[in-house]
Write a structure and sequence with these properties.
heterodimer; A: seven-stranded mixed beta sheet; B: mainly alpha
């Protein structure tokens, strides 16, 4: 084995009481890693435990067993090192847009003078296209898309070691979603930011991710596969659809979510660490490579 | 009759004035002119009964009385004859003192029991028993323990203002959205910072609603409390004028109680608007 990844999730297990005296196992022994600077999306049906994994990574929930290690240290409790963008934006409605960002910056850099905190906050709001009078408005006076931009600016302005995005575009209409995806790519492109993102949207995942983790349905959900997105960056939504790998990857994901996530679900772990099998689909190189990978995955 | 129709506010104002004038006119007309009584009995002559029988005064008299009192509100002619401004001043002082003490106890304490489900459940039975007690029922106990009528009145205000503030604070704090608490947690805000930066502003509308209910109750209760403890205050004034059979002053002071109560409520309504936020 090579050295441990930057973020290492080891034998993570979550059980909840099922209300009838027993336990409901959401997932068990889930084991995977994320490299520094990597953009990883996790795809799966509702109820498979994606959000639970996210909350554990954020430190907002504790797993039944297993550990999360970042940079070799075990994660416990929430931290400014792990920034979170929530699906419902989670802006504080009594603060202006600017203050919603600057209170986070002030918490991250308590030594900075106020002017520097505000300047830094303005700079990151500008990166998501919010400038001028808009930043003095309250969140209730902003559209859903603008609110999520503020939330993204707040997260990036804090330079967290790991950025967690919990279905950030789930509540937005398709057009707004596209614009903000582009903005997310732009702001992410200039950093070495490690990102872990939950999504329901296959096209979104392909556009954004270096790697997509696929989860089977719960209970006893597993992180079944880790699909590499073999489309070079920078990507744009209009160009990636013409890339030869795009539909191959997309079809693989659709088949997984459509059939296999159901078929593979419900089996208890055998007490071993459950790691996803890597899948690489590449139509640009020698044909057959990807078929092998796919077959291997299917046979598991 | 063309032209721009009047705004809702203007039409309402005109209607209000019409109702006021009509009401005053009906009141004035309903009071029969005082007639000199016919032959006086001996008893009536002995008791000065030649004066007209005390009746409900017409509004014109009340307005004249109001003008007289309000043009010199702070006079002092001995312990039983002080200006309306002094009486209201005493009442406001008692209300605000008792109310401020209640806020100092209720808001921090409500914060604590709002944060802890155990504390909430543990204190709830006591609160539920103490809350419905008429504040005046505390008066004998307060007088006996405190041995001071002024302080007892303040205590009664304290005990009646504490419950709405306490319950609303606890309710508001307990109901702060978990998302906002999570924002505080992921930004590593300490307990004190979380309390002041997130929970207090989030719960502020509920807390101020409780404060507004409390000030209303305190102003209701002070009149009754002052009737009991006597000495000074608007409640005492009402009762004193009743003993003097001066109904004009009674009606005038009733109106003053209403106006001061309205001003207190308006102040808290403004505070409520100040802390309100739209989600």
């Amino acid at each position: 084995m090579a050295s441990k990844p930057f973020l290492s999730i080891e034998r993570l297990t979550q059980r909840f009481p099922d209300g009838q005296g027993g336990d409901l196992t959401v997932f068990e022994d889930a084991t995977f890693g994320i490299e520094k600077g990597e953009f990883v999306c996790i795809l799966g049906h509702s109820g498979c435990g994606k959000s639970t994994i996210m909350n554990i990574l954020a430190g907002l929930a504790d797993p039944t067993s297993g550990v999360v290690k970042m940079d070799g240290f075990e994660v416990s409790g929430p931290s400014l090192d792990r920034g979170v963008v929530f699906q419902n934006y989670s802006l504080l409605p009594w603060l202006s847009t600017l203050k919603n960002v600057s209170f986070g910056v002030a918490a991250r850099y308590p030594d900075w003078p106020k002017a520097k905190v505000l300047e830094h906050s303005r700079q990151f709001l500008a990166k998501v296209g919010l400038e001028g009078d808009v930043i003095q408005r309250k969140p209730s006076q902003l559209s859903g898309g603008m609110r999520q931009r503020v939330s993204i600016a707040r997260a990036f302005a804090n330079h967290p070691k790991l950025l967690l995005l919990d279905e950030p575009f789930g509540a937005l209409d398709a057009l707004t979603r596209g614009t903000i995806q582009d903005e997310l790519l732009k702001i992410w492109g200039g950093t070495e930011q490690t990102v872990f993102m939950i999504t329901h949207d296959i096209d979104e995942a392909i556009l954004l991710a270096d790697r997509i983790l696929l989860m089977t349905n719960g209970p006893h959900a597993r992180v079944e596969e880790s699909v590499e997105i073999t489309i070079p960056r920078p990507r744009s939504r209009t160009e990636i659809v013409d890339h030869p790998n795009y539909y191959a990857i997309r079809n693989h994901l659709v088949h997984f979510l459509g059939h296999r996530s159901q078929k593979l679900s419900g089996t208890a772990s055998d007490g071993q660490a459950q790691s996803p099998s890597p899948v690489r689909i590449d139509k640009t190189g020698t044909p057959g490579d990807d078929d092998g990978a796919r077959l291997r995955a299917v046979n598991l | 009759m063309a032209g721009v129709p009047l705004s809702v506010n203007k039409r309402a104002a005109i209607l209000s004035i019409v109702m006021l004038v009509a009401g005053l006119l009906i009141w004035e007309a309903a009071i029969p002119a005082q007639q000199a009584a016919g032959e006086l009995t001996e008893y009536e002559r002995l008791t000065g009964g030649g004066a007209p029988k005390a009746g409900v005064p017409p509004p014109s008299e009340v307005i004249a009385k109001a003008w007289e009192e309000l043009s010199n509100p702070f006079y002092v002619n001995g312990p039983n004859d002080k200006g309306i401004g002094i009486q209201i001043g005493h009442s406001i002082y008692r209300v605000l003192t008792g109310y401020a003490l209640a806020a100092l106890v209720a808001i921090p304490f409500g914060f604590l029991i709002g944060m802890s489900a155990v504390a909430y459940k543990a204190f709830n039975p006591f609160i539920q028993v103490l809350r419905p007690i008429s504040p005046l029922a505390w008066m004998p106990l307060a007088l006996f323990i405190i041995q001071d009528s002024d302080a007892s009145a303040i205590f009664v205000i304290f005990i009646c203002s504490i419950w709405p503030m306490l319950l609303n604070t606890a309710f508001g704090v307990a109901g702060v959205r978990q998302d906002w608490v999570n924002v505080a947690r992921t930004h590593e805000l300490g307990h004190l910072k979380t309390a002041f930066m997130v929970i207090l502003p989030a719960a502020a509308p509920t807390i101020v609603t409780g404060m507004r209910i409390s000030i209303g109750i305190a102003w209701l209760v002070i009149v009754a409390a002052e009737m009991l403890v006597g000495g000074t205050g608007i409640g005492y004034y009402v009762w004193n004028e009743w003993n003097n059979l001066d109904l004009t002053s009674v009606i005038f002071s009733i109106l003053m109680i209403g106006i001061v109560g309205m001003i207190l409520d308006a102040a808290f309504a403004a505070l409520q608007r100040g802390v309100a936020y739209a989600e």
